[in-house]
Amino acid sequence: MLIFGVLLLLCVLGFLAVCTYAVIVVPRWSRDGLHANFQAFRFLLYRFRLDSSWFGVLLLLRGPLMSLPIALATDYPPVQVMSLMLVFLVILIIQSKAWPWKVPLLNVLDCFTGFCITMLVASNSLYLGALEGSMKDFADGVGSVIMGMMGAAVTLLFVMTVCALTFRAALGGQQELIAFNLQRTPAPTLAAESLQSMSAKLVEMDRAGLVKALSAMGVYDNKLLLASVSLLGTEVVPSYADQMATRHAEGREDGVGCMFVTD
Asked: Among residues 37, 47, 44, 36, which one has the least CA distance to residue 15?
C-alpha cells in the first residue's frame, strides 16, 4: 500500500510539473504560433483569461492540498480545520485579485462559493467540543444558512451550464449574454476605432513627452497599460499578420493559376 501511494504521489507531482511548465511557456507558444502545443493543454487553459492561464494549476493543487491535512494529521481535527481554512483563504485571495475565469459572473460565483466553504469549515470547528443548548442551536443555524447559500450558488451555476449548452455564446466570447457578463460588451468596431484613434495620437507624441506622461502614472495604471500592450502584441497583431499572410498566399496561388491557364 505504501509503495502504491508513493507511485501515485510521483505521478501526481509529475503531472503538476508538466502543467506548470505548460503555463509558463504558453505566452511563447502563442507568440510563435505553436497552436498544436496550445491545443494539447487546452483542458488547462481555455477556461481562463490569457493573463490568468496559470490559475488552472492552482485549481489542480487545491485538491491535493485539501487531502494532505486529513492524511498527515488524522488524529488532530483542529489542525485539519486550520489547514483547510488556510488553503481556501489563500486561493480565495489569489482568485479575487486575478479574476481568472472568462465569464465575469463565474468569477463572482466561484469567489462566493469559496467564501461559503471557508465559513462552513469554520462553523464545523464549533463541533470539536461538546455543544448543548443555545450554542448547539446557533451552530446548527449557522451551518444551515451557509448550506442554503451554497445551494443557491450551485443552482445558479447549474442554470449557467444549461444556458451555455443552449446558447453557445455564453462561453466568454464577444456575443456573451449580458447576465453572465455583468455589463454590456462594447462593439468590436467601437474598440477598433478607439485603438486606431489613440495610436494615431501616440504617433504624434515625441518620446520625451511620452516618457514624462508615463512616469506620472501610478503603479496599477502602468501594470494595466503593460497588460493591454501585451494583449495587443499576442492576440491582435499576430491575428492580423496571419490574415495578411493568408491573403498573400491566396493571391500568389491565384496568380500561378492564371499564368497556367494563359499559357
From this structure: 44
CB contact at 8 A, 51 and 230: yes
pLDDT at position 94: 92
Q: Using CA atoms, how far apart are residues 90 and 215, in angstroms rounded to an integer? A: 33
Residue 124 vs residues 69, 77, 117, 154, 258: alpha-carbon distances, Å: 16, 10, 10, 20, 78
Report percent pLDDT > 70 for the chain. Answer: 85
pLDDT average, residue stretch 122-140: 76
Angstrom distance (rounded) from CA 110 to CA 132: 34
- Location of C-alpha cell 479575487: 96
N-term to C-term CA, the chain:
77
- Is residue 110 within 8 A of residue 95, CB to CB? The reply is yes
Can you give 143-169 as a three-state secondary structure string?
HHHHHHHHHHHHHHHHHHHHHHHHCCC
Q: 129 is written with which cell numbers? A: 467540543
C-alpha distances (whole Å) from 35 to each of 30, 31, 40, 249 are: 7, 10, 9, 20
> Whole-structure pTM over 0.85, yes or no?
no
Burial of 247 (0-12, 13-18, 19+ CB in 10 A): exposed
Cα-flanking dihedrals φ and ψ of residue 48, to 5°?
Answer: -115, 160
Listing DSSP states for 11-64 in one string gives: HHHHHHHHHHHHHHHHHHHHHHT-HHHHHHTHHHHTTB-GGGTTHHHHHHHHHH
Cα Rg of the chain (Å, integer): 26
